[in-house]
Structures are given as structure tokens and as C-alpha cells.
Amino acid sequence: MLILTYSQTPLRALKNEIFKFRAIIVHHHLTNIIKVVLNPKILKYHFE
């Protein structure tokens, strides 16, 4: 029982870390998209 609990905890922690990492990436992309939408000049600058 003790071994089972011990083996599950790191997996749960790892899943939490992966979830946080994904959330950070998604947040980063969303902020970039919002910046581009709010500033069409940036978009034009990228494609020139």
C-alpha cells in the first residue's frame, strides 16, 4: 500500500508540471495573437 502511494505521487506531480507547461505555452501564444489583433501594424511589418 505504501509503495503504491509512493509510486503514484511522482506521476501526479509530473502530470501537474506538464499541465502547467502547456498552460504557459497556450498563454504565450494567446498573448501574441492578441497583440497582433490589437496592432495591425505589427502584422504588416512581419509580412513586408
From TrEMBL:
Domain of life, per UniProt, equals: Bacteria
Name used for this protein in its record: Uncharacterized protein
Which organism was this protein described from? Helicobacter pylori NQ4200
